[in-house]
Amino acid sequence: MIQFATRMNNLKGSAIRELLALANKPEILSFAGGMPAPELFPVEKMKAATDAVLDEMGEVALQYTSTDGWPRLREQIAERMGKKNGIKTTAANILMTSGSQQGLDYSARVFVDPGDVIIIESPSYLGALNAFKACEPNFIAIPTDENGMIMEELEKVLATTERVKMIYVIPDFQNPSGRTWPLERRKQFMEIINKYEIPVIEDNPYGELRFEGEDMPALKSMDTKGLVVFLGTFSKILAPGYRLGWVCAEGEILKKYNFMAQAAALQASTEAQLIVSKFIDMFDLDEHVAAIKANYAKRRDVMIETMEKEFPPEAKFTHPNGGLFTWVELPEYINTNEMAKQCLERHVAYVPGDGFFPDAGHNNCIRLNYSKLNEDQIREGMTILGQVIKENIKK
User: Fold this and answer.
1) Across the chain, which distance is largest between two alpha carbons, in Å?
2) What does each C-alpha distance from 95 to 86, 106, 202, 214, 285 come to in angstroms?
3) Alpha carbon of 368 to those of 177, 251, 293, 319: distances in Å?
4) pTM above 0.70, yes or no
5) What phi and psi, each to the nearest 5 degrees, are found at residue 324?
6) Nearest alpha-carbon partner for 293 in 273, 322, 317, 270
């Protein structure tokens, strides 16, 4: 009889990945995945960048490169982080990864032994929870309000809990809630972190996708002790198919991530790194991101307007200022896993909320994505979803 490692008992198929399979069926209106709008991918410009790379340095592009990544791209990322996130850093502090998901996987393996504690927001990103579970941690979920993690609750946990090895947060347009931490809460968080000196994983896939309001400084920009590990990605601002993300960290921490990358993957794709770097040199990435934001802002508006019109008053939902998601909370007696089957019968898909929590329960929540479908599809899908919710409300 085959015997698997005990860690496999903690891993199961991702509800999101399974639901994404449905997105390939043309009749399904899928609000499930965090998928960018494919019509916004700069295909012709990427062709030009690809041709230029293969013409100018084809043999380099198709060869191995260093584990930390292509130097020119890391320089471009460091410069961009300074402009967009207020983070003063250099190429020497950046490690390229195969998407930020790989950075999440490395994070747990660098810091966490079985039985150690990882602190997360409640709710938190399902993909991160799945990545962390392979290291067999204990999770402590800190309650949140409309401004994100509640700092008084975080400090209580840190003051009374042993073996806390890292804290995982998404301060900007959080997945799944869409919420963003205000400046004062970021300052409070960093004061607590400096006091307890716990490593922080700041996941920032959506930070550039702000539709209105002022940009917030990254936690990493306030980091005076080298405790914050910043994870970035090109998946949401360029194209996810290149699978290019990065880790920004200091000193011994970055060295450990580098060792982990050497053991696990050797490096991120050389060709993808050179092509993205060439794209940034040849074209205006800011202009491209602006077009994405304008498109997603309209889709967000249509989704919220339709939900306000079609959902019953018992359904509460967030009003994000950017990113890709809104979060719906229904009465506790509604099981959104069961309701998802009813919606699929009417060709609408969403992600039930229970997977975004490390513990049982929380079956009354839904994550909805507004970036992938067009405005007419969003109206149709939210109207259908609203009708299904009404049918499940107790009279």
Assistant:
1) 68
2) 19, 11, 15, 29, 21
3) 9, 39, 17, 12
4) yes
5) -125, -5
6) 322
Taking residue 134's Cβ as centre, other Cβ atoms within 10 Å add up to 16
In whole angstroms, give the CA distance from residue 294 to residue 296.
6
Tokens 């946990």 belong to which residue? 157
List for the chain the helix, strand, coil content (%; round to 5). Answer: 50, 15, 35
Question: Which tens digits make up the pLDDT trace of 366-392?
Answer: 999 999 999 999 999 999 999 999 999
* Cα 263 to Cα 245: distance, rounded to the nearest angstrom: 18
CA torsion through residues 278, 283, 286, 292, sign: negative
Given a cut of 80, whether residue 105 has pLDDT beyond it is: yes
Give the whole-angstrom CA distance, residue 198 versus residue 169.
Answer: 13
Residue 11 vs residues 6, 79, 203: alpha-carbon distances, Å: 10, 38, 21
- 148 DSSP assignment: E
Identify the pLDDT of residue 24. Answer: 63
- Radius of gyration from C-alpha coordinates of the chain: 21
Note whether 273 and 241 are within 8 A (CB): no
Of 94, 65, 127, 54, residue with least CA distance to 268: 65
Cα–Cα distance, 274 to 292 (Å, whole number): 23
Beta strand 144-145 with 148-149 is antiparallel
- What are the distances in angstroms from CA 137 to CA 125, 159, 261, 345? 16, 19, 21, 37
CB 277 within 8 A of CB 60: no
Mean pLDDT confidence for 320-338: 95
Token pair belonging to 238: 């360029």
What's the chain's length in residues? 395
Rounded to the nearest 10 degrees, the angle between the axes of helix 71-85 and helix 270-282 is 50
157-179 average pLDDT score: 97
How many angstroms from the chain centroid is the CA of residue 283? 26
* Interatomic CA distance for residues 253 and 298, integer angstroms: 40
Alpha-carbon distance of 10 to 113, in angstroms, equals 14
Whether the Cβ atoms of residue 19 and residue 31 lie closer than 8 Å to each other: no
Calculate what percentage of the chain has a pLDDT beyond 70: 96
Question: pLDDT by residue (tens digit) across 3-42?
Answer: 878 777 776 665 555 655 665 678 899 999 889 999 999 9
What tokens were used for 370? 């507004």
